Amino acid sequence: MKFLFDDESFDYETLRAAGFACYGGAELGEVITTARRIPDGDEAAWLREWEATARRVHSLGEAAASAGHRVSAREALLRASNYYRTAEFYRRDDPANDSKARELSRLARETFWAAAQLMDSPVIPVSIPYADTTLPGYLYLVDDSGAPRPTVIFNSGFDSTLEESYFALAAGAVARGYNVLAFDGPGQGAVIREQGLTFRHDWEAVITPVVDFALTRPEIDSTRISLFGYSLGGYLAARAAAFEPRLAALILDDGLYDYHAAHERIMPPFLSEWIAQGRDEEANAVAALLMAVSTTTRWALRNGRWTFGAASPADYVRRTADYTLAGVADRIQCPTLVFEAENDLFFKGEAPRLHEALTCKKELITGTEAEGAGEHCHTGAVLLTLQRLFDWLDDTHATQ
């Protein structure tokens, strides 16, 4: 579903930014005029122009806040947060030591928190105990009554952030009477940036402490805790659910059975063989050629190297081998909703694979191009996707 760019990665990421307009994360005119100033595939221009838009809108938000215009400030700051995240997206040469990437990421977090304090329903920052540290999170509440309510845990993915949880899930959840507990885990958001913790395949080690924390909150109904996996979270959440019996339901947007297989499908067979054999010098040389001609490949391999703690693209791809639900999917016991995207740029074919492997009560919903929901994570169709998600969850809870 072409939007504003010929470059498939630029096009998808622009649609992603624009798609959050339904919950105040973007203004369509701002997205279009920003995109017009960016040549196809020019990552330097991408950062420059999205940052310029973010800073302009940020200034609008600060001015409105200073003048006591609460709603105007909140709206502008929410958009600025999304634009800062978008600006930083391709900055992956050396993100751990990149001052510009750190600055933009920090601004995305700060503007979101400033907006959150101006919302009509409570947003509580939380620290979730994990190993010998804590994971940052937000608890989005329906109201301040303290009444226990059904709650969805938001588990983000390969590059999504804690702040993105508001647009992707929490705003729609709160409007329907659901709380949301969102967090950054290892490899994600502020955790990879500030703590250097990388992804792990045994994600139950992350979700079990999150559920433990959720059970300490009186606002959360302990019998109606669901887990939502977003993008790579479609694997992570499913893996965790196989070992976490306290979940009332599982939602995967989109379903991901084998993360490693998704990489192998887009690589020449000889390259997969070289990586498996440890012939990294040759494999990395070929990967460099692929990265030179594909924005999607260049970004994915750089982001993977960083968030998986890998030494090279070949090392990263090899590390994904453990990220499979083979021998695990049939252990999931709670009712499960699997979303599929007809034109998934990254994980095409994985959702039906996962759905087939499940032995629990299950449903598969395919978002199609004809209805504008065919892109990865149904970007551009947030309202339709959340309608399907929460109607299913309402019905699931009603029968439990």
From TrEMBL:
<protein>
    <submittedName>
        <fullName>Alpha/beta fold hydrolase</fullName>
    </submittedName>
</protein>
<dbReference type="InterPro" id="IPR010520">
    <property type="entry name" value="FrsA-like"/>
</dbReference>
<dbReference type="InterPro" id="IPR029058">
    <property type="entry name" value="AB_hydrolase_fold"/>
</dbReference>
<dbReference type="GO" id="GO:0016787">
    <property type="term" value="F:hydrolase activity"/>
</dbReference>
<dbReference type="Pfam" id="PF06500">
    <property type="entry name" value="FrsA-like"/>
</dbReference>
<keyword id="KW-0378">Hydrolase</keyword>
<comment type="similarity">
    <text>Belongs to the AB hydrolase superfamily.</text>
</comment>
<dbReference type="InterPro" id="IPR050261">
    <property type="entry name" value="FrsA_esterase"/>
</dbReference>
